[in-house]
Amino acid sequence: MRKLSFLTILALAFFAMACQTIPDYPVQPYISYGSAYFKELPQTDYIYLSINFKDGDGDLGLNSEDIGLLDSADRYNIFPVLYRKVGDKYEEFKIVSYSGRFPRLRESAQSGPIEGSLQYKLGSLNFFNEDSSIVKIKVYIRDRAGHVSNTIETAPFPVVYK
Asked: Is 61 left (phi over 0), alpha (psi -120 to 50) or beta?
């Protein structure tokens, strides 16, 4: 009898673990702030941006086939805008566009919810002509179906040249 109840409990535990609920996210991507920081390197300086994402149908990212099928205006899927603190305000840094693309986050054709973290780096020979600054970034992403996420804003962070 003891063996039977132990096996029953063990079977119920496995069943409970196997029946995890699948998240129900909207098909429009949702992003939240992870982190952002600057790193000065000898050849190219980088701002590293980390965002968290959730997407209901998992169609985030582009591969080379996707890029070849898109109009040139749709070849990007991440849209960061850099803002530099000038006095008490932040002004858009319009010298260059940092829009780009990230690869498919799920290679299979399987549709379904996906969530995780995405790292993206913005590179420059020298941001702001090597003047140290306080910056922040506003960013949004777009999935392959054209759904645009919410726009998030990073916390201010330093770009300091030594």
From this structure: left
Please count the CA atoms within 13 angstroms of the CA of 145 that sit on its side-chain side: 12
Residue 152's nearest CA partner among 33, 45, 16 is: 33
Decide if 31 contacts 149 (C-beta within 8 A): yes
Classified as helix, coil or strand, 13 is helix
Decide which of 119 and 7 is more confident: 119
Domains located in the chain, CATH noted = 24-159 (2.60.40)
- Predicted TM-score (pTM) of the model is 0.82
Confidence of residue 1 (pLDDT cuts 50, 70, 90): very low
Candidates 94, 85, 98, 72; CA nearest to 132 is 85
- Among residues 81, 95, 96, 83, which one has the least CA distance to residue 135? 83
| Predicted local confidence at residue 71, as pLDDT | 65
